[in-house]
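User: Hey, quick favor. My workstation is busy. Could you predict this chain's structure for me?
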Amino acid sequence: MKQALVVLALIAGGCVKSNAQQCGELTCPTGTTCGPTGDRCYDTDLVEACSARADGEACEVPGLPPSVCAAGVCQASRCGDGRVTGSEACDGTDFDGRNCMTLNFYEAEGLRCTESCQYDTSACRGTCGDGIKNGNEKCDGADLGGATCFDAQFYSAPGLACNSTCGYDTTQCGGGHCGDGIINGLEQCDGTIMGSTCAELGYAGALSGMSCTGTCQYASTSCSCSAGRCTPGTQRCECTKFGCGCVAN
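Assistant: No problem, here it is.
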């Protein structure tokens, strides 16, 4: 009898991963085994019940109703038996490795299991859509955290709203913004649109043209002579065969 048990243990050990092994990012606790897909821990008897069976074949686990194999795991289930099987999301204190944070809340604690073995997130805190600005949200519903269109880089305050992903909805913001290709606000330029020319700024004979920064101000390289920027209004950039330089007007 002992020899038969040893043989059965060796067979099971050859088909089922040790519960001391990592299962993806999880470590399977005592009594559980890394399932065939290698990303979730299951009760060992559920895996062993299907170790020699194909998906769809009948399987039985003592104390549970007869079921079938799916992905190498017997789907035998009875809500209240303390282990997650079949269509259960949780069972008792077994949450299948999940917590509030993995269910898109901002804090891990608070997850509960209902009598029907489904998640109860009523005690979880912080999520997009709860109407409270928290976590990394810019806003949530009507809670803009005191922000206006100014905070979204527009030049007029009214019109800011919040979108479904808890980010700013600026469709009703006005006054323009840097990057819209229109010079407005305190902008000197916007993209390729310049508010002035080198000559209008007092630079004469300049070799480089005007360019705009990402903050809609003239770039320091605008209107430059090869030796550097000349003094506007009093110097001009002139070039000879020996090079270019600033000379007095």
